[in-house]
Design brief:
By secondary structure, this protein is mostly helical. Helices cover 74% and strands 0% of the residues.
Length: 78
């Protein structure tokens, strides 16, 4: 159970590192396409306190990987 909590916290932490310049919206659209979910579902449930950061367990590792890639990309652009 502790592993799940740390993945959830890791997702929250990585998400907070994304720039607020439209990068978060683009990332949500990427996840919607990648995981075949609606943008609204991703925004409301996966990446918000309202949804309690409810990224499904089967997608958590991939989401963490995608977030890390996105952060690396934005950091090399700066």
């Amino acid at each position: 159970m502790q592993v799940e909590i740390s993945k959830k916290k890791n997702i929250e932490n990585l998400w907070s590192q994304l720039n607020d310049d439209g990068t978060k919206s683009k990332f949500i659209k990427l996840c919607a396409k990648e995981f075949n979910r609606s943008v609204k579902t991703i925004r409301q449930w996966w990446f918000s306190n309202y949804g309690d950061w409810s990224v499904p367990k089967e997608f958590q590792d991939k989401v963490i990987s995608l977030l890390q890639i996105q952060i690396n990309l934005q950091n090399t652009d700066n």
